[in-house]
Q: What sequence folds into this?
């Protein structure tokens, strides 16, 4: 009886504590752990009206990792619109005579989903089928000149300056081009120490394979720069067998052009010239005539932006974030480059009331460790999103971790979570927790113990 009374009194005491007090108690426990000896924490909780619930260094800017995506996605939905679609078009130069044209052109306004496997009705075979049907409808049977990939809608720089070199050659570090294909990824089957490599979407690279056989998983790293023709793969892979590794295609416009050339040949359409890209020719000192809009005969639209945002947040596709940044820069009257897009992104959030020093953006995806954003800024952005007409699509896109709707972020020794949770008493909380430079193993259980207070 005495034991039951003690349990009851403890329960009453805990329930009497405010959420802020319980959050503070759990936060202090987290901070006193060995994992946090040299770490930094920014943690902020508010209700869905933006009213403060708890703040620990909430204004302190830290590397956000992929929680940066919530700010990019919300701004893109607001500035571009949930129904915004990218377009890829085809045209020809000269006059169509007896089925023959001079040059055949493909251009895009930077569609990052072109050839992606994620969208029903928009898969690689769908694009192929529709392009060939348009050529047939136009009775084009011969290209006397070149297949020109006009990838000039974006500037030449394909990856933000702050991205680490050991990320850029891997699939999650793929650059954003004016024309993209298959999310700018390729797959290669690698056996440690072997020169024999089997490709899907062959990126036409010369390889140096320095992988060693060790362990049971893929611990390899690919080093390859955009527009390069040499790649290094090192690290470790399981010994004695081949493992499939995904990398970043160094020149997606040319890769797609080569695929299209193959489609033409398969369907009896003669291509007499070569596959060239406008941006690649710039590197060779050659000028190329740009896309002749008056002869457009094919327009292919992407899924809606709201659908793209779903995969951007749910599967953390870095490529999409950088496409949004450049598109925001271009569509708001500026330039289609990172500098303009990032500046526009920051100005957008400053205009929504977030203090400028708390949003030091370096990219749109969070892959750069040079992003310094505070937990308070992320929570304020999430609170803003809740009041917008596109919020249902945004909320649906967020993954679920620890039975809570929130975006995660992970880069070296840094972890972040930002999202929403409605407690048992019906209160909706908006939160962001960012930790940099923790040590030891996984920090997730300790972070979840703090966030569990909101349940």
A:
């Amino acid at each position: 009886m005495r034991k039951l009374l003690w349990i009851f009194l403890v329960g009453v005491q805990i329930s009497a504590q405010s959420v802020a007090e319980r959050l503070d108690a759990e936060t202090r426990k987290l901070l006193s752990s060995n994992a946090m000896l040299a770490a930094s924490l920014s943690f902020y909780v508010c209700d869905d009206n933006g009213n403060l619930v708890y703040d620990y260094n909430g204004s302190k800017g830290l590397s956000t990792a992929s929680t940066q995506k919530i700010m990019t996605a919300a701004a893109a939905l607001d500035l571009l619109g949930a129904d915004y679609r990218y377009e890829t078009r085809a045209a020809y130069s000269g006059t169509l005579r007896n089925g023959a044209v001079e040059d055949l052109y493909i251009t895009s306004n930077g569609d990052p989903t072109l050839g992606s496997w994620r969208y029903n009705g928009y898969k690689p075979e769908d694009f192929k089928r529709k392009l060939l049907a348009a050529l047939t409808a136009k009775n084009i049977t011969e290209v006397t000149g070149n297949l020109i990939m006009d990838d000039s809608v974006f500037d030449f720089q394909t990856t933000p300056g702050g991205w680490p070199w050991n990320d850029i050659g891997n699939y999650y570090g793929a650059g954003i081009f004016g024309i993209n294909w298959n999310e700018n990824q390729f797959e290669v089957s690698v056996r440690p120490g072997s020169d024999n490599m089997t490709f899907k979407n062959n990126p036409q690279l010369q390889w140096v394979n320095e992988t060693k056989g060790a362990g049971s998983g893929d611990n390899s790293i690919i080093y390859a720069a955009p527009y390069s023709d040499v790649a290094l793969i090192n690290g470790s892979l399981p010994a004695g067998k081949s493992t499939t590794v995904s990398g970043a295609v160094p020149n997606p416009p040319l890769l797609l052009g080569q695929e299209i050339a193959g489609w033409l040949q398969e369907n009896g359409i003669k291509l007499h010239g070569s596959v060239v890209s406008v941006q690649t020719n710039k590197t060779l000192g050659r000028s190329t005539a740009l896309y002749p809009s008056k002869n457009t005969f094919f327009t292919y639209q992407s899924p809606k932006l709201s659908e793209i945002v779903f995969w951007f947040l749910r599967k953390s596709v870095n490529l999409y974030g950088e496409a949004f940044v450049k598109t925001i820069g271009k569509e708001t009257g500026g330039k289609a480059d990172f500098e303009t897009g990032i500046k526009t992104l920051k100005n957008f959030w400053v205009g929504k009331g977030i203090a400028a020093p708390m949003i030091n953006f370096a990219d749109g995806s969070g892959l750069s460790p040079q992003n310094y954003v505070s937990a308070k800024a992320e929570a304020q952005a999430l609170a803003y999103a809740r009041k917008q007409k596109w919020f249902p699509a945004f909320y649906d896109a967020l993954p679920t971790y620890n039975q809570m709707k929130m975006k995660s972020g992970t880069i070296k020794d840094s972890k972040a979570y930002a999202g929403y949770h409605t407690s048992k008493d019906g209160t909706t909380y908006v939160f962001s927790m960012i930790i940099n430079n923790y040590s030891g193993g996984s920090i997730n259980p300790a972070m979840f113990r703090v966030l569990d207070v909101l349940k």
About this structure: DSSP finds 13 helices and 24 strands in the chain. The chain has a mean pLDDT of 94.
